[in-house]
Amino acid sequence: MQAQQSHYFVYIMGGQPRSEVKIGIADDLHQYVQAIRSSSPPAVNYATADKNNLVYYEHYDEKEIALTREQQIKDGGADSAFSLIESMNPNWLDLSDML
């Protein structure tokens, strides 16, 4: 029997282009996004309607690599995060339907 492969996602949640974003890591990105959107009151302090869009994500098989990447993105500052989002998603569309 083969062991189930782990999945880790570095994500950026945001709303309007070049506005406040949240950078984090999740092992089940789809479930995480759904939990943010369905929590009432919000389980996550960040969970407001205009900031719940999944605007960027990366997939990793190893948690340590995902954690390192998350920190790199956070250390790069807001302009770096905005550039990263716009390289993959120039219109800041919600990517959660692609999961």
Helix and strand topology:
Layout: E1 8-14, E2 22-26, H1 29-38, E3 53-60, H2 63-75, H3 77-88
Antiparallel strand pairs: 1-2, 1-3
Protein name: Excinuclease ABC subunit C
Structural commentary:
The protein has 99 residues and is α+β, with helices and mostly antiparallel strands. The protein has one domain: GIY-YIG endonuclease (3-Layer(aba) Sandwich), CATH 3.40.1440.10. It has 3 helices and 3 strands. It has helices at 29-38, 63-75, 77-88, and strands spanning 8-14, 22-26, 53-60. A 3-stranded antiparallel beta sheet has the order 2-1-3, sandwiched between helices. Strand 1 (8-14) and strand 2 form a beta hairpin. The protein starts with 7 loop residues before the first strand and ends in an 11-residue tail after the last helix. The model has no long low-confidence stretch (mean pLDDT 88). It comes from Pontibacter silvestris. InterPro entries: GIY-YIG_endonuc_sf. This is Excinuclease ABC subunit C.
